[in-house]
Amino acid sequence: MRTFFSALASLLYLLLLGSCSSYMTQSKNVSNAKKDYSKILVYARGKNEIARSIFEQDVAAALQQQGINAVAGHKEKVVDVPAEKQLSREESEALKQELLNMGFDGVVITHLVDTEQYREVIPTGVYPSTDAYNYGQFGYYWTYYPAFDWAPGLTIEGTRYELESALYDLRNDTGNTLQWIGRFKLEDPKDLRKTTQGYARELVSALMKESISRE
């Protein structure tokens, strides 16, 4: 019976963990204003071409569902910049002007900030042994308590990824074009499409609430 309850507790914990999981850890509207954009480029800096393409398409699709004209940079081959390349100020300004000439006034850029290995042990439950004789006598109960049956714990190991997404307004000529920035954490994403779609939903939801206007 205790094995059954241990298994049930483990299942409930996993269901609860899955239903409450969220990728976003923090966000900030740097510009303190909401702006409308006529065309937004979605760009992800990554060496995995397939993952990058899927991610950009999912974010662009989520923006489009909100009525925003968004383009996945990898799919449309808008920008051809190697993932590992660091742009100089001159190259950055030239790229900005090129995008403006193509009709883009906003860019959402995502890149990997950090990775770390983690190991967590999570107890699935503690169950009291309810012996009527011991519970009914004060003296016996005093010496008997605490007598617990510890359910086996869950050991979770894997890799935790921290990513950052930022929205830039290319029309801003003051030098600081950053409008919004958010941090996200992913733990062992096994289903790439499900993970990118969840990330895209949270990212776009925050952008629409805090930084992008439909007007």
TrEMBL record:
Keyword presence, Signal: yes
Signal peptide residue numbers: 1-24
The entry's keywords: Signal
Superkingdom: Bacteria
Name by which UniProt lists this protein: DUF4136 domain-containing protein
